[in-house]
Write a structure and sequence with these properties.
This protein is mainly β. The chain contains one helix and three strands, in the order βββα. The structure holds zinc ion. The site of zinc ion (ZN) has 6 residues, from loops.
């Protein structure tokens, strides 16, 4: 099985699980909802798999189906 790139939260350093609730901010940084400090304006809120699937810049992080 090919090793995939993993994204991790810049606040808590934990790797995202596909079902984690995350916030994408205006700088295209992904945070856990509970880690987001509202320093920047949120752009999108959702679960991790939906946020990365909806933004082409993150498609390298999509799991291979
Ligand atoms: Zn976090």
């Amino acid at each position: 099985m090919k090793e995939k790139n993993k994204m991790h939260c810049p606040v808590c350093s934990n790797t995202y699980k596909l079902s984690d609730k995350v916030i994408l901010d205006i700088n295209n940084t992904v945070f856990h909802i509970e880690c987001f400090n509202h320093q920047f304006s949120p752009k999108q809120l959702g679960i991790f798999i939906e946020v990365i699937a909806g933004n082409e810049i993150f498609h390298e992080f999509l799991p291979v189906s």
